[in-house]
Each structure stands twice: as structure tokens, then as C-alpha cells.
């Protein structure tokens, strides 16, 4: 089919989306100077764009640090697009309780056609750089990625394509090690990853399942490596597993099915 020529576009809207993409693709909130450097937009125009996007709720400006991150309205749109609005509302109170109980950062992650992404974060330690923010896609060898690789059965074609793409990035030894690890993850409903994104920051993840034993989402605990347990039998691990089990039951999950 011949491509349509001379398609009319709204340049200012395109620029606004470009700014959102720049912020979404970085693993930390950005300062004005960083956004300007990455976008090439003049100072006067960038101020207008950032003010407009902030007022619309598509961006959030932290007045203490002068940084910009994705705003609540943007997150609402993303939630609607991936069908996770109800999941976020149901899981968020648990994220809060988990962070309070463990003094660590808790994440909600859901599936998209490009892999698992962070849908919500409850930060217990604002000085900790976890190497990701809302909207970040997580790799296979993260704790979250391992949970999705093991428990996410639908849509099957997307899962297979994602796993093949991610496995191609690993060495033969890493692939063999992961194959062994999958068996234990399926048995314990628990996955651990040592420093997958940021040095000295590790995580573990547990699944939230529905009445068909299909994966709805996962809860991930993130913190300094020495503070994150790597076994499901740890007291902290058991608390998070208990929360995930309660959430699974709310989606109709019954063990032993």
C-alpha cells in the first residue's frame, strides 16, 4: 500500500509527546537542564511546555528538587490502556502496608505487549535510586521479569516472543542457570534478583494470580542488597507472600486447583 504523503500534524503536540517520552525513558526524575539538553528545545519554549504538561497532570514537578516525572493523569491513561486500573486501586493499599512493614520500596508491575512494566511505586526510602520509575519496562533477569516468565501464560505468543528476545541477551551459562531457577520459582512463588538494574540494589518478587491461576500482576520489594531477603522463608518474604496471597484470593484464586 502506498504511504500517504503530506500528512498534516500538530507540531506543538508532537513536541509535547517528545518531552513525555524523554522523561518516561529515563530511570530517574529529570531537571529542567537535563530535559533541555535531551530535547534541544529553547528555554523559553520548554518552560511553556513543562508548565502546560504539569497543569494538565501529565507531569509532576517536585518543588523540593526541581525535577519532573510522569504525573498522575499520565498514569491514569496508561492504566486504562493496559487494563490495570482496577488492579492498581486494589493493590496500592497493600504496597503502602508492605513499605511501612519492611521499610523498603514496593512496586506493582503489570504486563504489556512489550513486557512487564512498573504501574505503581510506594517509596519508603526517597534517597534510594532503584533504577526505575513508573512506566519502566523490566528485563527478564529482574525479580519481576522472572515471575512473569514463569507464571504469565497469556497472551502466549507475546510471552514467547518476549522471552526469546530477553534470553538472546544472555550467555549460554546464564540461560542454563535460569532454566534451573524457573523450577524453584514455580514451586515457591518467589523470585530473587541480585542487583539487576543498579549496583547494591536488589529485589524479590511474588505473583498475584486470578481464578484461572493466570498472572494478574506482581509485587516486588526493592532495597539495598543486604536488606532484601533472597529466600521465601524469611519473615519479610513471608509477609509479602501473605499480602500477595490475599490479593490473589480477591481475584478468585484458590490454591490446589
From TrEMBL:
<dbReference type="InterPro" id="IPR050707">
    <property type="entry name" value="HTH_MetabolicPath_Reg"/>
</dbReference>
<dbReference type="InterPro" id="IPR036390">
    <property type="entry name" value="WH_DNA-bd_sf"/>
</dbReference>
<keyword id="KW-0804">Transcription</keyword>
<keyword id="KW-0238">DNA-binding</keyword>
<dbReference type="GO" id="GO:0003700">
    <property type="term" value="F:DNA-binding transcription factor activity"/>
</dbReference>
<protein>
    <submittedName>
        <fullName>IclR family transcriptional regulator</fullName>
    </submittedName>
</protein>
<dbReference type="Pfam" id="PF09339">
    <property type="entry name" value="HTH_IclR"/>
</dbReference>
<dbReference type="Pfam" id="PF01614">
    <property type="entry name" value="IclR_C"/>
</dbReference>
<dbReference type="InterPro" id="IPR014757">
    <property type="entry name" value="Tscrpt_reg_IclR_C"/>
</dbReference>
<dbReference type="GO" id="GO:0045892">
    <property type="term" value="P:negative regulation of DNA-templated transcription"/>
</dbReference>
<dbReference type="GO" id="GO:0003677">
    <property type="term" value="F:DNA binding"/>
</dbReference>
<dbReference type="InterPro" id="IPR029016">
    <property type="entry name" value="GAF-like_dom_sf"/>
</dbReference>
<keyword id="KW-0805">Transcription regulation</keyword>
<dbReference type="InterPro" id="IPR036388">
    <property type="entry name" value="WH-like_DNA-bd_sf"/>
</dbReference>
<dbReference type="InterPro" id="IPR011991">
    <property type="entry name" value="ArsR-like_HTH"/>
</dbReference>
<dbReference type="InterPro" id="IPR005471">
    <property type="entry name" value="Tscrpt_reg_IclR_N"/>
</dbReference>
